[in-house]
Amino acid sequence: MDGGAHIHFLSSGDGQTEVDGSFAQQYRLAHVRAGLSRLGVGAILDWLTRRGGDAQGIDTLLEDGTPLTSDNRDRVKGNLFLSFLFHDLRDRLQGHMQAARLAGTGPFAALPAGLSQQQKLNWLRAQACISLNQVLDEWALSLVDKPLPTCPFARMARFAQGFFKGSALYARADHDMVSISKTGSNTALHMCFSLVEASLHLGLDLPVQPWRDAMWRSRKELKTLAAGSLGMIVTFLHASKLEPEGESAVNPTTGEACAFRIEHAPEGIRLRLDGRSITPFSTGNDRLYTGCPAFHVAGMIEMYLDWVLDLAIHHGLHAPERPLYDRPWPPRWTGVAAD
User: Fold this and answer.
1) Over residues 243-260, mean pLDDT
2) d(CA 338, CA 333)
3) pTM: predicted TM-score of the whole model, two decimal places
């Protein structure tokens, strides 16, 4: 990876077609109504790769004759730099997840006794975020040790660290390169756990493999949401009551909100996001957005979901328990998902 030979960038589009009235279509049109245009991230990342991670001159490339506000420019640059660096993070995260799974450590360790199913989910989400944050800390330190002349990630890391330190936007939010990486990555994990939580609240009661297949078919919803602007993502999570307490992914959710619905598609059961909570949002200073950095790293969101599904199955959280929570559940759906 040090030479950048294995970098695989995604184009600015996700290659998925929209269905009339779908969440994806409603979400994209809400961005248009908010006056936001999506940046062609893949082309910028290719440009950075050809330059060996050197980001000098990126401001001129981004503005392309139409000036951006300083906040919009810094928000876009921060996401671009993390999108580039996360190609180095992905393999480290994958190795950590596999090691924890095999050793039964971290979130794969035994849960405390006496927890309800909702409490187990909240505990697992917190432990998964803590485990992820540890990897991010180790990864940031490892970037310093990479050979600067030959490694594009080392060059970009040094540039990005200086950028985040000097950015007024990130200073106001009290974020540096590592803390903003944690915030975004924890939110991605939180949405994967929300998918599992939704399957329980909707009464989806399937054997392990059909349940996993149904959740895997639902990953498009997570990727669609991740492709949006930060403001649109946060607004949707708030309106759909998917935000955890204190807006931190390590905090518990009430489990009372469900922004998903069951769909019986020709290829099998899946969960779909409900578009009624989509609200156009812009700070008023932005015209460009990138989507979450992880969206632009091939297989990274799928990796998060795969980890969460493994955790849910490992701890028996793939089907509603009996007795259920302290409040009644919707009628249980006990069909068998198609392959």
Assistant:
1) 60
2) 14
3) 0.87
